[in-house]
Amino acid sequence: MSNKEKYDQVFIENFSVSADQLNADFVYQCVPQWDSVGHMAMIAALEDTFDIMMETEDIIEFSSYTVGMEKLKKYGVEI
């Protein structure tokens, strides 16, 4: 499975959405599941999936599907 597929899978499983919903318009609180609790669950799943530990600043700034891809580059994860 590619990193993109793994990344998408985290969003699909955590927010109960379909792959076609994952685009630049998929942002924090665009679905009810992406609230503060959902955000931390998603971060934990990404950290587990990619074996990384994100810094607090990056967690706070992780505000959308596309921003997340940029944030993960800092940790050596190319999407």
SSE map:
Blueprint: H1 3-15, H2 36-50, H3 56-61, H4 65-73
Give helix and strand order, one letter per element, not per position.
Answer: HHHH
- General form: globular
Determine the number of helices (DSSP H or I, runs of at least 4 residues): 4
Tell me the name of the CATH class: Mainly Alpha
> How many structurally independent domains?
1
Helix content: 40-55%
Report the portion of residues in β strands: under 5%
Keywords for this structure?
79 residues; Non-ribosomal Peptide Synthetase Peptidyl Carrier Protein, Chain A; globular
Notes on the protein architecture:
With 79 residues, the protein is mainly alpha-helical. It has a single domain (3-73), classed as ACP-like (Non-ribosomal Peptide Synthetase Peptidyl Carrier Protein, Chain A, Orthogonal Bundle), CATH 1.10.1200.10. It is built from four helices and no strands. The protein has helices spanning 3-15, 36-50, 56-61, 65-73. Helix 1 (3-15) runs antiparallel to helix 2. The chain is globular. It starts with a helix and ends in a 6-residue tail after the last helix. The model has no long low-confidence stretch (mean pLDDT 97). InterPro entries: ACP-like_sf. This is Acyl carrier protein.
